[in-house]
Amino acid sequence: MVRLSGVYKRRTRGVALLIAAAITIVLNVDTLSLTTTLWQSATLRSYLVEHAKVRLSQGAPVQTVEYTQPDVARVTPVDTTSATKTAAGDQVLDDEMAMLGQLFGWKTGIVPFFSRGLGPVFWSLVGWLLTALAVSLGAPFWFDLLNRFMSFRSAGNVPDSTSKEPVK
Questions:
Q1: What is the domain partition of the chain in residue ranges?
Q2: b/e sequence 5-30, b meaning 16+ C-beta within 10 Å
Q3: pLDDT tens by residue, the chain, 168 residues
Q4: What's the angle, vertex CA 45, arms to CA 128 and CA 125, rounded to 5?
Q5: Measuring CA to CA, how many Å separate 55 from each of 41, 48, 50, 58?
Q6: Which residue in 90, 101, 128, 151 has the most C-beta neighbors within 10 A?
Q7: What pLDDT was estimated at residue 122?
């Protein structure tokens, strides 16, 4: 059973890497290009940071539910024609879509992309590979890494408050 689970894990990693590579190439998400763009454009970088702060301050979307008959547990549909309706927090707005279009995607098409020469194509391949590797690792890996970094930055974990040893 241990050998079988090892084979399953290896194949799952391979499939995840292939899916990540396909999505990366189809969407043209190049880590090196993104890094270079954000490094060189202070205006775009500051806009992204400020826009992210605004989106975080909005919080999670709130959906109101109305009960027309309090004795019945059936919920009435949400009124979407209300004037107080706001965009949900998980929807991509038009200006955000335009901003993503500046950072990712096929701007000139695939044929002019490969006619640029071998140097830029090589660096795009390296950027795609880095992106595909990062995506294939999955969210649990990145959350664990972020938690380790934050605990290192804050000088370790908080000691257990139920310890029975007196502090000397």
A1: 12-30+105-154
A2: eeeeeeeeeeeebeebbeebbeebbb
A3: 888 888 898 899 899 999 999 999 988 888 998 898 889 989 888 988 898 888 888 777 666 666 666 666 665 555 555 444 445 556 777 777 777 777 887 776 666 666 677 788 888 889 999 999 999 988 888 888 888 888 776 665 666 666 556 555
A4: 10
A5: 21, 10, 9, 5
A6: 128
A7: 87
Task: Assign 136 to helix, strand or coil.
Answer: helix
The DSSP string of 91-133 is SPPHHHHHHHHHHSS-SS-HHHHHTT-HHHHHHHHHHHHHHHH
Rg (CA), the chain: 24
**Token pair for residue 82?**
């209300």
For residue 106, CA distances in Å to 29, 45, 129 come to: 9, 21, 17
Rounded-to-integer distance, Cα 84 and Cα 28, Å: 38
